[in-house]
Amino acid sequence: MSTEHVKVLIIGSGPAGYTAAVYASRAGLKPVLYTGGQPGGQLTTTNDVENYPGYPEGINGPQMMVEFQQQAERFGTDIRYGLATKVDFSGYPHRVWIDDKTEITADSVIISTGASAKYLGLPSEQEFANKGVSACAVCDGFFYKGKPVAVVGAGDTAAEEATYLANLSPKVYMIVRRDEMRASKIMQERVLNTPNIEVLWNHETEEVIGNDTDGVTGARLVNNKTGEKTEIEVNGFFVAIGHKPNTDIFKGWLDMDETGYLIVKPGTSHTNIEGVFATGDAADKVYRQAVTAAGTGCMGALDAERFLAEKEFEMSTAEA
Ligand code: NDP
């Protein structure tokens, strides 16, 4: 088990983490950033980002994250692959373990761990994970080119994934559990005006069907109004039912709501622990946008900088 001390530790590599890194490194704080299990974060599973200011023509999500990383590297951020697996915020400096083996002690910690896709929780869904079941159409849709697919969910993500898949597949079923969609009006219209998308209203999935050789071959659905069961033939089964914040390791240390979103002092990135700052989707259940994540990443770095300056001042006056 190795140990290392850093001034600013950033956990996570989405827009929040990299923005915090740009600000902290430009402030001379020599931040160390651990990428987490999905380097680049959720935007690496997105196709076109059209609503991030400064890209008038839009930009591809993975490319955008490469650019975020390059910008952080340009100012000297030490970017490392690794997953924070445990923390101990009982004393000072703060302690964080990476991949259960490296212990980092940090004068300040900026949490930018984001959120992860939710699944339905069916055993068959797990059985066929990466064999037809996916939570990212943009990542995996290509594998089902020319084949029928299904998307579960009725939010903007599901609508976006269904329209994306409709360009690749002859038939896209959208499995919606109510008789209306949560997605924005423009996205709903896009779905309803795409001829090869069929919306199955009031339907829930009972089982994903398949076998070892072919992976997913279909899904058994039930109409929750009539109880009627149907089977659809699909080779790709895309789950797009929302996200869960990646904050499990902070349970017991940091204040969070019932879903696990970290609670910050309003208008700041301060958590209930001095020197620990929360940014991005891990602390945002309302906006969840790349640009808001980047904005709070900036706040995290500025709050950390101020905290460290005050701490240094306290120590120098205590010594004098
Ligand atoms: P949402 O939480 O908005 O939607 C989740 C959807 O999944 C809902 O329709 C919900 O149904 C459905 N759902 C949840 N659990 C189940 C279940 N067990 N079985 C079946 N269906 C289920 O998540 P999104 O990921 O779609 O969006 C998150 C945020 O990101 C939103 O604010 C969205 O606007 C934003 N976003 C914006 C985009 C853009 O601007 N380009 C693109 C993608 C997302 P019900 O409605 O019945 O609760």
Q: What is this entry, summarized?
A:
The chain folds into 2 domains: 2-116 and 243-319, FAD/NAD(P)-binding domain; 119-239, FAD/NAD(P)-binding domain (3-Layer(bba) Sandwich), CATH 3.50.50.
Structural account:
It is a single chain. This protein has helices at 15-26, 61-74, 123-127, 137-140, 156-166, 185-192, 290-319, and strands at 3-11, 32-34, 48-49, 59-60, 78-80, 84-88, 94-98, 102-111, 115-117, 133-134, 149-152, 172-175, 197-200, 203-211, 215-223, 229-233, 236-239, 243-245, 276-278. By secondary structure, the protein is of the alpha/beta class. The radius of gyration is 22 Å and the shape is elongated. The strands form five sheets. Strands 1, 2, 5, 6, 7, 8 and 19 form a seven-stranded mixed β-sheet that branches. Strands 10-17-11-12-13 form a five-stranded parallel β-sheet, with helices on one face. A three-stranded antiparallel β-sheet has the order 14-15-16. 42% of the residues are buried. The protein has two domains: 2-116 and 243-319, FAD/NAD(P)-binding domain (3-Layer(bba) Sandwich); 119-239, FAD/NAD(P)-binding domain (3-Layer(bba) Sandwich), CATH 3.50.50.60. NADPH dihydro-nicotinamide-adenine-dinucleotide phosphate is lined by residues 51, 120, 152-158, 160, 177-178, 182, 241-243, 288.
